[in-house]
Write a structure and sequence with these properties.
- One of its GO terms (molecular function) is DNA binding.
- Keywords: DNA-binding, Transcription, Transcription regulation.
- Pfam families: GntR.
- This is DNA-binding transcriptional regulator, GntR family.
- It comes from Sphingopyxis indica.
- By secondary structure, the protein is mainly α.
- It has two domains: 65 residues, Winged helix-like DNA-binding domain superfamily/Winged helix DNA-binding domain (Arc Repressor Mutant, subunit A, Orthogonal Bundle); 121 residues.
- The chain has ten helices and two strands; from the N terminus they run αααββααααααα.
- It has a two-stranded antiparallel sheet with strand order 1-2.
- A hairpin with a 3-residue loop joins strand 1 and strand 2.
- Helix 1 packs across helix 3, helix 4 packs across helix 5 and helix 8 runs antiparallel to helix 9.
- The longest helix is centred in the middle third of the chain and has 21 residues.
- It is globular.
- It starts with a helix and ends in a 5-residue tail after the last helix.
């Protein structure tokens, strides 16, 4: 096992590259090449790739190694459904009067992740926060396609933040349902662009 001061920055660098689409879905992830690019030895890179495989962000096959994850239509639909369930649970358990978040600065995928993580945090349930964060990391690459496939993403995010600020759970719930329905309706297109079979 590699020391934490090497593994954690290596893990974060590889994960961010995966989330940003730095590798084509299905492409082979060569530990030695990644190690050279990051200026570390092969061992921490392998440790990180195994960890990311456990988080289902990387595909691993014995004898074939590591590959950038290919998202299938079914998997994408399942992730959206679970993401919605978790967010509705967070919304239902949030104490009245909690201050609502505004979307953070940054690009759309990061702002979306930040809003949903903050929604979870408002519930006070650490497990909801951890689950929504992990699932959001897996959905992050697909969020780069949202504007192309569903459009009006900035307005949608602003409406969600405004509904939270106004403290109207019913309105927020409806916007969350619509957010997820719009993406589920284009699941085949997301899967096609992210390398998965239907």
């Amino acid at each position: 096992m590699s020391p934490a001061h090497v593994v954690e920055p290596t893990y974060e660098a590889i994960k961010r590259r995966l989330m940003a689409g730095g590798w084509t879905p299905g492409s082979r992830l060569e530990s030695a090449k990644i190690a050279d690019q990051l200026g570390v030895s092969v061992t921490p890179v392998r440790d990180c790739l195994y960890r990311l495989a456990g988080e289902r962000m990387v595909d691993f096959t014995h004898g074939d190694g590591f590959h950038a994850h290919s998202l299938s239509e079914t998997e994408y639909r399942d992730m959206l459904e679970l993401h919605l369930i978790l967010l509705l649970a967070a919304l239902a358990t949030t104490p009245r009067g909690r201050a609502a978040p505004d979307p953070q600065d940054g690009d759309y995928p990061d702002r979306t992740a930040g809003l949903f993580i903050e929604m979870a945090a408002r519930s006070g349930n650490g497990e909801l926060v951890a689950s929504i964060t992990a699932l959001g990391d897996r959905l992050h690459l697909a969020r780069h396609l949202d504007e192309q496939l569903v459009g009006e993403t900035a307005a949608e995010l602003d409406a969600l933040a405004a509904a939270l600020t106004s403290g109207t759970p019913h309105g927020t719930r409806n916007l969350l349902l619509r957010y997820h329905e719009r993406r589920a309706g284009e699941a085949a297109s997301y899967a096609r662009l992210l390398g998965g079979a239907s």
